[in-house]
Each structure stands twice: as structure tokens, then as C-alpha cells.
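ugh ok so i messed up the first submission bc i forgot one of the chains. this is the corrected input, ALL of the components this time, i swear. 369 residues overall. if the numbers dont match what u have on ur side tell me asap before i send this to the collaborators (the ones from the other lab, u know who)
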Amino acid sequence: MPFKRYVEIGRVALVNYGKDYGKLVVIVDVVDQNRALVDAPDMVRGQMNFKRLTLTDITIDIPRVPKKKTLIEAMEKADVKNKWESSSWGRKLIVQKRRASLNDFDRFKLMLAKIKRSGVIKQELTKLKKENASSI
Amino acid sequence: MAAKRKTPVKTRNPDLIRGVGKYSRSKMYHKRGLWAIKAKNGGAFPRHDPKPKAPAAAEKPPKFYPAEDVKKPLLNKRKPKPTKLRASITPGTVLILLAGRFMGKRVVFLKQLTSGLLLVTGPFKINGVPLRRVNQSYVIATSTKVDISGVNVDKFDDKYFAKEVDKRKKKTEGEFFEAEKEDKKKLPEDKKEDQKAVDASLIKSIEGVPDLKAYLAARFSLKSGMKPHELVF
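and heres the new structure output, hopefully the right one now
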């Protein structure tokens, strides 16, 4: 199986370890076999080991080591934020964050909503079962 | 004593550096106006003769001297303060009780008493917790707040919750063998009235928020997969 996501200049990656955990960063240059120069609009550009990065499907069109302004413009042009938040990976992370930030009261309301939903589903199911049983 | 000023004067002699003032002795004499006071009093500084002291009562020599010197204990002027209230606990916060008869119940916080304990109520009609005192350490503060503006809690303090002392009658031999006549202590009517008064406006504001009444009626418990250190309350 060939690789699909390559380390290249402009590849957007997710930081999976360290101070910037969970941030989307852009690979801006490759330092050596293990490290990349990495940049994000709200971060000071710095080096990161590849082991701390998980590559995403998104790439942007930038020259090697662009100025911060050009980087931000390129990210806007490629619409990285919206592409990420509409991708299934991005959506999953958003849901995880929302679940972790739930209040005790919110969790209670969630439980009530789940019970209500499953009640409605079970009603429909029993109705369908009865129809099926009677038609046989 | 000379008349005290309403606001203390800041020093007329600012420090150039610690230990060295800006103005010399003669300059300060002039600044403080001592020359004016002297002029007002005819060239001399006014002095007040000490008032004649009342003659001290003659002390009798003590009847008893201890064999060795008795040490006097050190003076203690400490005034204990009520426990520092956590910033997350404000009047109207929903608390989760962690220990005791009402373990797991979600309860509304009213105020902190002078002993440091927290005054808390169910409300009684919703979850059976009466007006009660609770220690801050046995409580989780949630971020849910209830509107408590309609409640007057001024009359409750630690004395309100003191146990009633009843006089024990001396038992004679005959009475020892009789069955214990003390029946269960009934809750006095005025305490029930206090509970109703506090809960009336609370219940109204609770019913204003959807699901809050059911939330307060339910108990909290840790379920599978819940990690307390990761939960946001």
C-alpha cells in the first residue's frame, strides 16, 4: 500500500504531543531527517520532531519558509479552517472537545435526551415488528 | 493629648534615600510651624503639667507564695476567621454532597455561617434535604447557579442549629424498669415554617429553568468511564 500523505512544504499537520497539543500547523521547511520547521498563525515558528506531528490531507501552496503574512494569506486562500472543520476527523475532534467540556447539569440533560430518543426509536421498532408479525 | 487630625498628614519631610531626609532640622522647624506655636504662647513652647494621679490603693501582701515561680502562659490574641470560601461557591450555586445521609444529593447553597460551615437547602420538597449545615470539604461545587435573590437567610446562624438541651430527671428505682418514655423528638413547627418560607421563592426560580427540578431531585453517581479528574463540574 503506497503512502498517500507526504511530508512536503505546505502540508498541514496536527500536533499530537507537547505544549501545542491539538493545534493545526503548516510544515514550512524540513530541517533534517527527523525534524521540520513548523508554523501557525498564532504561534512562533519553530522546529518540531515528525514524531510529534500527524499529517492531514490538507496542503497549501506556499514558497519555502514564507513570511508570516504570506502564510496567513495562503491559509485563508486554501480555506484550511473550514476544510478541517468539515472533514470527519476535524468534526470528531470538535465533538470530543464538546463532550469533555460538559457541565454536570449538561450531562444530566444529555442523559434525558438520550432516554427520550431511544424511547421514540423503540416505539417505532415495536410498531414495525407488529406490522411485520401481522403480515406474515 | 493634642487634638487628632481627621486624616493623618503624610510626612512633610520626604526621604531622599533611606535614613536621609530632604530638609534639615532648622528647615523642618520652620515647616512644622513650631515658631508660630511659640509666638502664640508668648515665646515658650506650651507644656501641660501632668494631672495629679489618684493615690493607688494600698496592696496587701499575699497570704500564699508558691514554692517555685509559676510561669504565666503567653497571651493569645488570635481571633479565628471562618474558613476561606472557595471562589467557585457563591450564593445560589448547586453543590453535590459527598458524605453523610444525603450523599450524592444535589443541593442549593445559601450562605456561609460564621463557624465556616455552609448553609444549604434541598429544597426540601424537591429532594428531601432540609436547611442544613455542611462542611465545605465534603462538597463539590458545580458551575450551575440558581437565582437566590428572593430568599432571606439573615435569621439563620449556628445558634439556630444548636441541639436542644433537655433536663434529665433523676430516675428512681421503680422508673428504671419502666419502658423509656422518651418518644421521638418532633420537629418544631417554626422550623417547618422557616423551611417553607425559604423554599417558596427558590422553587419558583428553579421551575423557571427547564429540567433543573429533575436535576436537583436526582442523585449524582460515578458511572463507568467517568474520570473525576477529567470531569468538568
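quick check: The first strand of chain B starts at residue 15 and ends at 17. that seems consistent at least. Helices of chain B lie at 25-32, 34-40, 124-127, 173-176, 189-207, 212-217.
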